[in-house]
Structures are given as C-alpha cells and as structure tokens.
UniProtKB/TrEMBL annotation:
SUPFAM superfamilies in alphabetical order: Cupredoxins (SSF49503)
Origin species: Penicillium cf. viridicatum
A GO molecular-function annotation: oxidoreductase activity
UniProtKB keywords: Copper, Glycoprotein, Metal-binding, Oxidoreductase, Repeat, Signal
Keyword presence, Oxidoreductase: yes
The name this protein goes by in its record: Multicopper oxidase
InterPro entries the UniProt entry points to: Cu-oxidase-like_N (IPR011707), Cu-oxidase_2nd (IPR001117), Cu-oxidase_C (IPR011706), Cu-oxidase_fam (IPR045087), Cu_oxidase_CS (IPR033138), Cu_oxidase_Cu_BS (IPR002355), Cupredoxin (IPR008972)
Domain Plastocyanin-like: from-to ranges: 87-205, 217-347, 436-560
PANTHER family found in the cross-reference section: MULTI-COPPER OXIDASE (PTHR11709), MULTICOPPER OXIDASE (PTHR11709:SF502)
Family of this protein: Belongs to the multicopper oxidase family.
Lineage of producing organism: Eukaryota, Fungi, Dikarya, Ascomycota, Pezizomycotina
Amino acid sequence: MRFAFIIILANLFGVGIAYPNYSSKPSTTLRLIATRSRVPNIQGATGTPCAGNTPNDRSAWCAYSIDTDYENVIPDTGVTREYWFEVKEVTISPDGFMPPRLAMTINGTLPGPPLVADWGDWVVVHVTNHLYQAMNGSTIHWHGIRQNYTNPNDGVPSITQCPIAPGSTMTYKWRAGQYGSSWYHSHIGLQAWEGVYGAIIINGPATANYDVDKGALFLGDWTHETVDQLHQDVQLRGPAKKLSNGLINGKNVYGNGTNTTGSPFHMKVEKGKSYRLRLVNPSIDTHWKFTIDNHIMTVIAMDLVPIKPFTTNVISLGMGQRYDVIITANQESVAESFWMRAIPADKCSQNEMADNIRGIVCYGNTPKQPRTQSYTFTDVNVCEDELLTNLVPHVPKNVDLPVSPVWDKNVTVSNTRNAENFFRWRFNSTSMNVSWENPTLMQVYHNELGFSNSSGVIELPFKDKWVYLFIQNTGVTHPIHLHGHDFSILAQGQPGRGTPQWDGSIITENPPRRDTAVLAGNGWLLIAFKTNNPGAWLMHCHIGWHVDEGLALQFIERQDEIRDLVDYTPFNENCAAWDTYVKSQNIVQEDSGV
C-alpha cells in the first residue's frame, strides 16, 4: 500500500539542470588531487582567492559572478578534494561540567573538521565507523547538498544505503555545484546530536563585500546526559525536558555567578575590518536568536542560496538552517569586548542556561569579560523564520502554478502513541518506519515496488514537473528539511502572526528558496519544487526526537532513472557487511530507521 499524500503536478516550461553541492575546509584530513585550488581567505585555510574575488569585489569568481545561474552553470575546476573521516566515541566536557560524558564525533573533535571546497570541485570522503562500544552503524549526510544525479551519496540509512558497520568504511563522492555554507552530520538514530557533525564551506561569489571569512559558527544545544539516555523519557512524555546548555563552536560555561565551569568561545577582530560569519544551527531541539551587542549584521545568504543583503540586529535560526552574515568591527569606541548571544526562543526551546549562552568578540589580543548590554528585542521568544520579504534570492526564479490548484487537499502533522505507548509523529496519519537492511535503493534495484504504508513513499514518476505541498501543523513548531532539492516558499504563517489562517495569497515571483523552513505551531507552509533530480529523497522534521519518532516521508523521483545512478557493487558490499554485523551482535532497530 502506498503512502497517501497530496501532491499537485504541473507542466514545467523549460528544463533546469541542477548540480550537487558540497564543501570543505583544508585540514590534516585533506588531500588535493589535480593541480588547481582556489581557496579565499578563510582563517585557517590555505591558497588564494579565485581570480577577481577580493575584499573590494566579492561578487566576482573567475569567469563567473554572483549573477551566474548556479543551477545551470558549474565551473570546471579540475580539482578533487579527498578527506578521511573516523566516527568515534570520546569522553568530553565542552562546558566544563563534571563528570564528562561519552560523545560521538568525527575525528575526535566537536564540531568535526570542516570540509572546504571551491564551487565546481569534486569531493571524496572516506568514512570509517569506529563505534565499537556503542555497537552503532553510522552514515554521513551532506545537509543541503542537492546531489544532482548522485543520490546514492546522500547518506540516509534505509533510503540511500545500509548503515556502515563498525570496522567498515564507505566512500562518498559528490560535486560542489552550489556555493555557500552548510554542514554534514550522521543520519542514523540520534548520533548527529551526540556530536557527529561539522561544517561544509563551498567558496564562491557573495552578494556583499567583506575582508575576512571567519568560517562556520555553530550554535548548538548540549546535554549532560547523552541524548540517547534522554530519548526514553521523550518517547514516554512527548516534549523534552530542559536541555542543559548551549555551545558556540563547541564551547561555553556552565553555572552562574562565581560558580561556573568551562570557558566561552572567543573571536578576535581588528577595528575597521569586516567579517563573514557562517551561522549554523545543528541543535536537536533549540530554535535560536543570534545577536552581537552593539553590532549590526548584513545577511547575505540563507541555507545555500545567496540573497539580496538586508540588515538586522538579530537573526532567527531553526534547526538545520544556516545564515551567512557580515559584521564590521566599528565599535571600538564603545568597548574592547562584546557579547555574542545565542538566545533560545522559549516558546519552543527550553534550556537551563538560556541567559548565558554567549561568546566574546574581542578587539585586540587579550579577551576581556564584556560589560555590554543586549539589544532590546520584540518577539525574541517566538519560533519562526525571518520575514519572507527579506529573503529575496539574488538569482531570480519564478514558480509556475497549475491552472486550478486545489489547496484544500492538505498535508497534516499529528502525533499518536504506538502499541508500547511511545510517542510517534505522523505526516497524514503515517509515522515512518523503514528498515536499515533494506533501503529504498535496494528495493528499486530488485523491482520490489510494493512499498508499505509505513515507508512513507510518494512516487513522482514525471520529469520536469512542479510539486506543491501545503503542510498544516499542530501546536508544535517543526523545521521541515527536504533532501535533494531547494524548495520555493510560496506561503508561510501562523495564527496571531498577521492573519488567523492562510488567506490564499502566495508568492510566485522569485519566492525565497532554501532547503529547511520553519512550520510554525498551528501554522502553515506552502512549498514547491521541481522534479529535476532522480532519486529517493527524504523530507522530515529536523528536531532530532521527531525524525526518530517517524515525522518523515520520502519522494521516489523518476524511478526509472534511479538504477543507472547506483554502483551496486559497493552498495551491496556495504549492506552485506551490515547484515553480517547485525546477525553477529543481535542488533535490534528501535527507531524510524532514518
């Protein structure tokens, strides 16, 4: 039985060719293959900027520019960047709390090593699983990377691959067809929120000038128990209890007054210079408001889409989202040090350290304790996206509509309890439950197409069509992430925020495009994307508990073309290794499978 879901298809006028995108930052795990490398001045990186890309003109990029349509044009750099990742367990205390706890990481650090590539590079990553103590399989998903015609590299267990067994290695390969800021993370169980994540940085042009690229700035939540320990309670009671802390680039203090442990993140700046910060929210269950005292941010990109710059003193980040911002160090007459603040939006995010998740921006060589005051905000506690009117893509793309759209056919979010009385989330009355050892791509290979209802399958057999989804929500906010595509946001809202219900108005002229958008509590989200990328693509809530509890579905797009995308020799070898490990260790799957 196939998954019941409402989609509307319309003819697409003209075919756009899209490409995958990936990024990386040079580290000891990097090897460059071929002769050319152009890496702009990200601090800690090596190399020189692409021709023409200078602090006075960040819009240029060799023979291309910020005006180039990156969905149809991709530079041929002749470069492959190769990395080696080890998923391993470590004992850490990023906020100094004792005793430290067991975590999972890439190469032993939190966050893991950044991946940096130039627009157009190929990226090869060898991932070895060393989770012997936890006896966990693992995968790595390249969040926001569209994987055009490279669907088997998307890194989703039960969908595009079997888990990587402890002691085994899997190689991922994809092309950096877009540019901007993203992140990679495990996509099995709750591993991402145990610490298996890091930055993806794809160098390219920008919509505003800046002097120095500071790289990724992660705003993550943290627990003093493992998230797997907390999950049992979440499954039984629904909402999670207050989380212990928040981290900025893997650091913070814990406690209040003089009774504190740990140390805050420091960022050094030089007066008069401008700095690009790549904000990333890797949290399991925290929607952030980010601000730097006395400084204005110029926002130049959302997720992996360059936008027309706008200025603000606070930016709102849902789980899985990214924003690129520029700040200018022009406040030296006010103070030598300033607080940067990650503030949980308390209508959907509870944290013990809500008032003290901070880093320090320091003018000079010696960081001093700031005495600056926060801006006064309205709606700091509200869990919502930035205004759609501010999020204008620089490369314009319009959305065509069907002649007679039927918007009353809705996709609904709901929850229930299963036979064990555990909490489960659902799209249209279906909670996803798929099998690690029998991924969708294997079923396609064997032509086993009688998908169960719990597989959450929506088939999209047609090439170059528009797909429209109108999603309605319960009282809980959900950040919705789509793999394999950027989607256009045609409408978004919630009761009490302008209108009590959707009034039917939509944006079709160059609407915001991104891969993760906030579906507000009791609100609505109307999105559209094109069937221009064959594969099996997951769509899910990016709250860790919720995807683990089934709030996901999958699109099988242009199924007839999928088999030709898969090299089934390494695919089947990986699944055979996992099957052997499962049988030897009596592994039992207890979650949604994704």
